[in-house]
Fold each of these.
Amino acid sequence: MRPEGRGDLDSLYFDYPQFEAPDRGGELVQETPVVIVGAGPVGLVAALTLARFGARSILLEKKSTFNDGSRAICVSRSSFHIFDRLGAVEPFLEKALGWTKGRSFYRGRQFLEFDMPHDANEKFLPMYNIQQQYIEQFLYEAARDTGLIDIRWRSEVKNIHEKAGRVELDVTDPAGAYRLKADWALAADGARSTVRAMRGLRLKGENFEGRYVIVDVKMAHDYPTIRRALFDSKSNPGYTVLVHRQPENIWRIDYQLKPGESAEEATREEKVRAMIAGILSDIGHEGDWALEWWSVYTANTLLLDDYRDRRIFFIGDAAHIVPIFGVRGLNNGVADGENIGWKLAKVVKGEAGEALLSSYTPERRGATLDVFANAGKSTRFMTPPSRGWALMRDAALSLSLSAPFAGGFANPRQMTPFTYAGSPITIGADEDFESGARPGDVAPNVRLDDGSNLVDHFSRSFTALWFGAGAGAEAPIAQLKKLDPDMRALNVAGAIIGAETINDDAGAIAERYGAKAGDVFLIRPDLYFAGRWRGENASKITDALKTILSAGEG
Amino acid sequence: MADMNFADLEVFYERLATAIDEAGAEKTDLFLTKLSLLLANKLGDKHAALDAIEIALKDIS
C-alpha cells in the first residue's frame, strides 16, 4: 500500500520500467525445454542457472514490471554466492548494505548485541540489506544479457496440463492466446501460485497468530546498518518492533499487531503514520520522514508435501511460506532456484539421467523444514503462541537487564546453513575423516595467498579438489571430464596433469577441509560437498559422479 | 557453581513454557513458587538462592 494520492508504482526512490508483451511481428516460439512461471527473484535465479549451463528457457510473468514494494530485504551470504556464480553479483555489492550485527532493546535499554558468524576467509558478509525491486532489476538485467532467456511480460498462464510426456500451458497476453509446449515447467509464481492452484495442490502446516505491519520509510537517519529489535517499547507496549536500514535512505520498520486487532484497521494510513511517529521517537529520530510503502505479514510455516508434480517443480514461495524471523523467504527460494536449475540443465543437455531430479524435493523440502525448526524458536520469542511462552519471553527480557545470559534467548541465530547429509546424491565413506566440513555441507571458502578466493577457482559445474601429489590421479580426472565436460580439477599443493595448481603454503585449505595429501573432494555446482575420499579410495570419485548424474540411465 | 550451558538452558526454557500452560493461569503462581523452592533446595547454597531473589525482583514494575 502507498499513501493517499500515490499509485502502486509511485515510489520515492525507484523508477519502475514498463515492459511490453512479446512482439508478434516475428513468429513466437511455442516450444521450449524449460518454461518458468514467475519472474521474481526465484524464477530469475532458476533461469540464470539454466543459462549458466547453456540451457534455454522461456520465463512468463503476469505483471509488466518489478514488485510494487520491497518485500524481501535481507539477502544472505549464501544468496550472494549464488548471484556471484551467475555473474550478477557486482551491482548487488555496489548497492546493498552489508551487516554483521544485531542489537536488542527492552523498554529502551539495550540488553543484547550479537554478531553473525563471520571471518576473514569468507568472500561475502553474512547479510546484506537491499530492496526487492533492485534484486529483481539486477537479476533481470543479467538474464536479458544471456541471450538464452526469453522473458515474456504481461503473459498469464490460464491452464497447465501434461500431455504425451510434455507440459502444455495456455498463455494469454495483450495480443492474444497461445499454447506453449515445454519438456519441464518450474512454478515460481509466489505464495498465491496459480500453477499450484491449477494442479489442485495445497500448502500444509501452521498459521501462527503473529502478524506484522511492514513499513518502508524514507528519512535521513543516522544509525549504522545494524538490525534493531525493540521489545516492549513505548510505541508498541508488550509487543515487538524491528528496524532495518536499506539503501537510498529507506528504513524498514516492522511492528507486531496485537491479537484481535484488525489488519484492515491497522493498515489505514493515519494508523500507520501514528505508529511510525511513535517508533521513530523511540529510536530518537527527530527529523522529517516520508511514508514509502507498507503491507501486512503473517508468520506462517506452510509447505507442499512434494515439491515436484511429475514434470512440474515448485520453487520459492510457490512451494513454501516461512516466517520472516529466519530471513529465509527469499534466500530459501533463491537456493531452490539454483538447486533445480543446475539439475535440470544437466538433464536437458543430456549429461544426466532424470533420476537426478528426484533429489530436488528431499534436499530443498528438507531445507524448509530446517528453517521451520530454527525460525520456530525465533517466532516463539517474537510472537509467543501461548501464555506460557509469553511469560517465559517476558521473564527472559526482564532478567536480561541484570543477568546478561538471559539475553541469549533473543538471538535469532539466522545463519546456520542447512546440510544435505541425508540427500540421495550425497556420497562418500566419511568415517575416514575426523575434521573439516562434512559431505552435504557447503564447501568452505578459503582466502588464498594471492588474495583470490578458493570458490572462484571452482567450476560452474562439478569440481574435483585433489590434495598433494596425487599419484594416479590423471586417469580418474580424464574419466570425470568425460562424464562432465565442464568439470574442473584443482590440485592443492601439487602439479597433477590436467588440474589447476592451487598453492597452500600455510596449509589453510588442508585445515579447513580436514585433508591430507592424496585426499580428494567432489564439489557440486551449488558449492555443496558431494563426497570426500582418503587417498587409497580416491578413484571412487568417478563412480560417485556416475551415481549422482545417473549416467547411463537417461 | 558453574552455569548451565545455553543449549541445555534452552531445553529448560521450552519445557517450562509448556509446563506453565499445563498448570493453567490460576495455578501458575503456585507452580512457579513450588519450582523455585525445589531449585533452591537443589542449589544447596543459601546466599546464591537469596541473591537470585534480589535479581529476579529487579525490572518487574
Amino acid sequence: MRRPLLLAGILIGTLVPNRALAQAPGTILIQNATILTITHGNIEHGSILIRDGKIAAVGTDLKAPDGATVIDAGGQFVMPGIIDCHSHIAVDGSVNEGAPAVSSMARIPDVLNPDDVDIYRDLAGGVTVANILHGSANPIGGQTVVIKLRWGKSASELPFEGSMPGIKFALGENPKRSNFAPPPGVPQRYPATRMGVEEVIRQAFTEAREYKKQWGDYTQRKAAGEQNLMPPRRNEALEPLVEVMEGKRYVHSHCYRADEILMLLRVAKEFGFKVRTFQHVLEGYKVADEIAASGAGGSTFSDWWAYKMEAFDAIPYNAALMTDRGVVVSINSDDAEEATHLNQEAAKSMKFGGLSATDALKLVTLNPAIQLGIDNRVGSIDVGKDADLVIYNHDPLSVYAVPQKTLIDGQVYFDRARDIAHRADVEKEKQALIDKEKKAAEAEKKSEEKSPDKSEAKPEKKPAKKKPTTSGVAGDAR
Amino acid sequence: MKRVRVLVTLLAVCATVAAFIARTVRGEGGEPRYFAITNARIVPVSGAVIESGTVVVAKGLIQAVGTSATAPAEAWVIDGKGLTVYPGLIDAGTDIGMPKEETAEESAPAAGRGRGRRRPAPSGPLAMGSEDRPGTTPWRVAADELKTDDKRIETWRNAGFTTALTVPEGGIFSGQASLIDLASERPGQMVVNPLAAVVLSFKSGGFFGFPSSLMGTIAYMRQVVDDTTWYEQASAVYEANPNKYERPAYDRTERVVGGAIRRKEIVLVPANNSIQILRAIRLAGEWNIPAVLYGGQEGYAVADVLAGKKVPVLVNLKWPERPKDPDPEAEQTLRELQFRDRAPGTPAALAKAGAKFGFYSGALAGPKEISKAVKKALDAGLAPDAALRAFTLDAASILGVSDRMGSIEPGKIANLVVTDGDIFSEKTKVKHVFVDGRWFEVHEAPPGEKAADKKPATDDKSSSFEEGAGVNR
C-alpha cells in the first residue's frame, strides 16, 4: 500500500521544487464525508466549509456558497491533519551537532530545507504538522521548531506561526555514547554515565542561572543610568536555557528508562522549569502517575522496541496505559517513512490497550497539538481552527485507508489523483532533459574533434555550428 | 552571430600558454610608462562606445579617452585600427597566486574530515565548542601569501583578465581575500586591496569535533559575531576605565573580525542553490554584515529576491555537470536535471531582475573553460553588454573598487584588453593587455608548435573555492 505513495512523492516532488502546488486560499466545501471531528464525535454525510484557510462551518446541511470549490468526498473520511511530535525531516545537514555535550546553540530553524522530498511523502501520508527536533547526541541538544508541511513554500514559510520554540534534551545511552566508540585518538566525550548526563544538565542550568543574573544586573544598572558598564558576553548556548527557565521554550526530552525520567523531573523542579514532553518514553507506563502529575506529555512509539538495552522493557500497551493514568499521549514517527502511516500506528493502541477509536486518533491529532501548545489552532475539526485536513478513502484506522487529499490552511497540498496524473509528464520532462544534455555533450565532442586546440581561431573549421545563437534576446528560449 | 564565442577564441588561443609570448616590452632605460592606442574602437563600459578614438595611458593610469584625446610626444603609440579596447576583465574568485601547500596555522581544525583534500589531519585536540575557534584563521590575508610563480597569472592575463580576487581556503573563517592585478615581479605590487573580503564557508567536520553539522557551523558564526561585537564594546569600556575592570582577554579572531566589520569589509558567503541563497540573505541581515554571495547558480529561482534585497552575487562559472562516471543504477532526479539545464540561465535572470553580479572562475581549469562557460550563459539569454559589465564595472563595484577600475575613464587604473574584434566573438583574439599601465603583447604560437603547457596549472591543486558548487540538497 505504501509503495505507490512513495513513488508519488518522488515524482511530484521533483516536478515543482519551488512553486507552491496549492492554490490561493479560497472558499472550499468538502461534502458527503464521514467527518471524524475528534472533539465532538463523527458526522455521517457531513460537510466542512473552509473560508480563508479556516474551518468556517461543520455540519450536515451546509450549502456551497457562490464561487466555492466543492470537493465531493462521498464514501470518504475526513479527519484533522496528522501531527507528528517527533520528526527529523526537512533539515539540511546533520540533525546532530554531536561534539559538545551541550549543543543548545545549534538551531534547526537555521537549516530548514523546504525541498526535502520527505515533506511531500509525509504529506502524502496525511501529516500536516511536524515537530522538527535536533538529534539525541547530547544531554542538552539543539533548538527545535514546529513546522507545517507547506510543500513548495520557502524555508521561512514553514514554521508554524506563533508556535512555541523548543529544545531537545536526551538521556541515557545516546548522550552517554554507550553504543559507539570514537575513532582512535579521539577521547571519549563526557558524560559516559547516566550520572554524568544529569550532572551536565545541572551544570548547564547553573551556568544559565548565573548568566541570567548577570544580564539582569547589567540591564538594570544600565536602565538606572550607570555609565561605563562592562557588558556581559552573549552566550548562544545559554540563552535558550534561560528561555526554558522563563517558560518561553519547551523541553522535549528523549528518554527510555523510568529512573532517568524521574531524574529529569527532579532536575526540572530544582531549576524551576517544566518538561513539556518526554519523547520515546518507552518505560513511561512505569511512572505514568509521576509524569501526569508533572504536567508533561508522553510521545511514544506504537510497538517499536528492543533495538538497544534501554529499549528492552517496552510494551505496546504503553500509550494506552499512560493515557489511562492521565498523561496526554501522542504517537510519533521519529522517521520519515514511519510518518507516512501514523494513522495505523495509532490504530495499534486499540488492539493493545483497548483505546476507543477517537482516543486512538487523538494520539496523532489533538494530543500532539496539546503537547506542542497549538491545540487552539489545530488537532480537531472545529469551527475557527485551521483547515488542516486529510481525506481518506477508508476509515483511517483501517489498514486499507490511503490519503486522497491533504489540506493545510485550506489549501490542497497533496492530491493523489493529481499526483498520479502528473507522473507521465514528469517522466517526459526528465527524458527531454536527459536527451538535451546528451545532444549537447555530443555536439561539444564533435566540435572539439573538428577543431583541436589552437584551430579555434580559424572560422572555416567550424561549420558544425548550425544552431544560430541569438545572443542577447534568447532569454525566453527556455 | 557568433560573438557569443566571446573570450573563447581569445582565451582558447591563449590557453595554449607557453607558446604565446607575453612579455612586457622593454625599451632601453627601463619600461615605458606612456602609451597611446589610437584609432581604436573603445568600449568604456561606463559610457557609450567610441567608434574611433584614443586611449592614453600614463604612469599606470588612464590619462585620457576619446575622439579628441591625442597621443603625447613621449608615448609609445599603438595603431589601434581594427582593434577594440575594453577594460581589463575581473575574475572575482580564484586561488591564483595562493601557495600550493597549506601554510595556514589552523587552530583546532574542525574534526579534520573536511572535504578539502589538502586539509591536514587533525593534529591538536578536537574543537569541542566555539571557544576553541575551529577552522578560524581570519587573520590570514591572501596578499601576504601571494606567489608570483603561478603560471595562471600569465594564462589568465593573456585571455584578457587583468584583475582577480584571490581567496584563501580552508576552514570556516579561512581568511581575507585580496584583490590583485595580474602582473608583477613582486607580490606587493600586484595587490590592489589586501583586505578585500572576509571569507566564510559553511564547512563542518565529522561527528566528533565541533562543529559537525551545518546548524553548528552557523551557530558558531553567530557566536563569533556576538563575541566580536562584545569585544569592541568591552575594549572601549576597558580603555576608558583601566582601573575599574579586569582587562578583556585578547582574542585574535575577535580583534581581526572586529576590524573588518568596522571597515565595512564585504563578507563572502557561499550560497549556490535557492535555499542556501535565501538562508544567506537572512543570516546576513541578522548579523548586519555586507554580504556578497558566491556560487549563486540557482539564482534564476530567486533573482527577484536578490534584486529586492540588493544582495550582490558572484556567479560560479563552473556550471553543474552530469557526473563524469555516474552510478548507472542511480536515478537522476528531475530536480538535478532542471538545475543543470537552467543554471547557465542565472546570469540572464539576474540581469533581467536587476540584481548585481560578477563572475568567478573558481575551480575552472583555465580561460578556455571560462569562455565555454560564458558562452553557455550568453546562449541562455545573457546580453553581451551585461556579461561585459559583470566582468568589469559591476565586479569592481561589488568589490568596492569601481572608483579605480572596471571602466575606461581618465584616472582609473590602466587595466585594458585590446582585441581584434568583439570580445565575445569566438574569432576574436587578444592582441594587447595592459595591467597597471604595463604593456603585454599577446602573440599567437607559431603554427605547428605544440602547446607546451596544455595542462592547466590548477590540475595539481584543484580549488576548493567551489563550496558554492553543486545543488547540494
Amino acid sequence: MGPLAPNGIISENTNFLLAFFIGIAFGFVLESSGFSSSRKLAGIFYGYDAVVLKVFFTGAITCMVGLLFMSLFGWIDLDLVYVNPTYLTSAIIGGVIMGAGFIMGGFCPGTSFTGAAIGKIDAMVFVGGLFIGVYGFAFTYPWWEKMYMAKYLGEPKVSESLGMKDGLFGLLLIIAALLMFVVAEWAEKKFPREEY
Amino acid sequence: MKPLKLLALFIIPLGIILAAVPADKTRRFKLSADELLQEAGAGVQFISPDVIADMLVQKDPSLQLVDVRTPEEFEAYSMPGAINIPLSNLLSDEYTDILNQDARMNVFYSNGSVYANEAWMLTRQLGYENNFVLEGGLNYWFGNILSAQAPAQTSPNEEFAKYDFRKSAATALGGGGVVTTEGSAPTVKAVKPAVTAKAKKKPAGGC
C-alpha cells in the first residue's frame, strides 16, 4: 500500500497539502515544547537542559518503531521510502558547521522559524543569517561542488553495514536512547541553571 | 522521571517484538495483472535477434545477455558474454542487483522463448525495468542468424541486406556452418570491418 505518493494512491499535490499541515503541526509542537527559546536549546551543550535530545530522539525512535511495524504488516514498502543519499565529506563538514551555528546562535534552522514566528528578534537575526548562508552557498556552488559530491556512499543503513536485522538494530537504538535520556536527566540535576 | 519510565515501559516491548520477528522478505508485485497483460500482449519485451547480433558484434557494453536455462545447458553452450541465472533461482537475492538496475539492458534467452518470457514476467511484475526477451530464443538464433539461408533470387533487396548482415555477424560471432569449414582464428580478424559497414543497414531489415 504505502508509501502513498510513490504508489500513486495520492497525487503529488495532495502530498504537498498534507506536508503543509504536517509542517504546521510540527512547528506548533516545537513551539509548545519550548523550542523557540535559544537558551533552552543551547542547554543541551552545557548540560542544564536536555529537551532537544529528548524530543528529537523520542521522535526518531517513535517513527522508527512505527515504520518497522507498518513494514511488518505490509502497509508500507520501505524500499520506496526516500532516504537522503550520503555524501560523507559534506555530511561531516555540514555537521560541524551546523553544530557550531547551533551553539553560537542558539537555534537550529527549524526552531529559528518558530522563534521568529513568536517575535523573537534573535531568531529573526538567525533566519537572516540562514538566508545569507543559503544564497552564499548557492551562488558559489561551483567552488564547493567537488567537495560537496565527494565520498558518495549511496543510501547506506547502519543495520546493513553492521550486518544485523533492522528490528534488532531498532531495539539497540531504543535502549541506547533511553540510556541517553537517563544520563541527560542526571546532567540536568548536576548542572542546574537558575533562570533561563 | 515519570514520563521516561512510561516511555520505556511502552517502547521497549515494541522494540523486543521488532527484534524477535523475522525480517520481512516478501516482495510485493508492483504491476497489476491488467498492466502486465497489456505489456505482454503488446510484446514490448521482445528484442529482435538481429538487434542482438548487431550489439554483440559492436561489443555494445549496455547489453547483458542472461541465460535462464540450467547451469548444465549453460556450460554446454552459451551466447557470447552471457551470464547464467537459472529460472529457478531468479528471485534469489544475489541476482537482484543485476535484474533491478537502470544502466544496462538485460536480455533473457532460453531454448525457445517460454522460459525467458517467464523470467521477464516475474521481473516485470516486481517493477524491474530494462529486462527483455530474445525473440525466438536460441532455436531461432541458431537457425536464422548463425546459419542464415540465402534468400531466393527474386527477394527484395532488404532480404539480401539482412542476409548479408546475418552472414557476417555469424562469422564474427564464431557460429554457423561457415566457420567450421574456415577455422576460427582468421575469421574474427577478416570479418570485423565488413560487419561494421553492414551494421548500419541492419535496423531497417530487423524492424
